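Comment on this:
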Amino acid sequence: MRKQLMVLLIHQIFWFGFSFVMYLSKRDQLYAKFILFLVFFYQLYLIAKFVGNTRKASIMITCFYASIFFFCQLIVNLF
C-alpha cells in the first residue's frame, strides 16, 4: 500500500509538471506535445517499476493515473 501511495504522489508531481510545461508550450505543434507526453509517460512508468511494482502493474498504474489526470484536466477546462 505504501508503494502505491508513493507512486501516486510522484505521479501527481510529474503530471503537474507536465501541465505546466504544456501551458508554457501553447504554440508548439501537436507532434511535439505528443513526444513530450511519451517522455513523461515513460519516465513515470520507470519510476513505478523502480519503486518495486511488476511490469504489468506499473503499466496499469501509469495508465490509470494518466487517465485520471486527463479527466480532471478536461473537467477544469470545461469551467
About this structure: The mean pLDDT is 88. The first helix runs from residue 2 to 24. The CA atoms of residues 48 and 61 lie 8 Å apart.
